[in-house]
Amino acid sequence: MNSDGATVLHAYGVVPASSPIELPSSGIDGAQVEVAEASGLVALVSRLDGTRYGEEVWRAHAEDPDWLAGFATQHQEVLGAVATTCDVLPFRIPGMYDDEARLLAVLEEEKELLRRGLEAIGGHVEWGVHIFLTDAPDEEPAEQPRTGRDYLRRRSEQAGSRERTAEARRTRVLDAYEAIADAATHSVANPPQDPALSKRSEPMLLNSAHLVPRDRKDPFFAVLGEVQDLLRGDGMVVEVSGPWPAYNFVHLATEELQA
Amino acid sequence: MSVQHIGAGEELALVDLVDRLIGGGVVINGDVVLSLAGVDLVYLGLRLVLAPANEVGR
Fold first, then answer.
1. Which pLDDT tens digits describe chain B residue by residue (58 residues)?
2. Interchain pair A91, B28: CB under 8 A
3. Would you say the ipTM is above 0.85?
4. Which of A16, A50, A129, B48 is the most buried (most CB within 10 A)?
């Protein structure tokens, strides 16, 4: 491919051809968001300047965090706006094609996978849930140990007590996850984000994603509220983000999720 | 009390988006495949989005 200098086509994702869709007023770089239809699927696309987004440019920026973050954010803004009302199967980036004919050929080739994916997430959006430990119980105030033996015994008791607290906390978080998952069609628990990455000083205890029917948002939030009430006494807070396109559930098209 | 909700249109944490883009999203054959010895450069790059904060050596 040598598209630099010409126009390249970026595909955000696909929606079913049958669904009414309200297109965002602008996409990446302010480009118009258009549709390209093939095989009962509608791809959401933008025509981008090849000198800014062609293959060579991607190659040059493939390890450029700021450039990628900017692109990813704009990609998500389009998908996020669409996902609030319409089923959309998000594509990874870069989804760049030389022209519409090339994109349509790929859609035709992958139509079974894409249709199955759309079916699996039909009528759903993804919600992200984080549980943070904001208020760890204070250590018992230390009385000056009289002897080295006292000191060592206290250290050992404190370590045991910390371990029991951590174990009890893990159980409560697991129970919370199961309660939240019961209110969702599918759920996945991902590794907690490092505090350095989440820019939060509090440890993250749960980083989960839940596929929830659009019309079940209220019951889902009610469960989150109940979970929050249960966990507050233990110094844990629940945060929810979304609605997201179903990024975490596109694999439902290709594999059975474990319950 | 209700939970803290970070909604669409508000400032989403970049880490949440990158979390999703690295782990999810449909991969079909785009014309741009940026790989080097089987390593997907873009996803390497997206991991780097997160790296600067990580320099403290956690």
1. 578 887 655 566 788 888 888 777 777 766 666 665 556 777 777 777 766 554 544 3
2. yes
3. no
4. A129
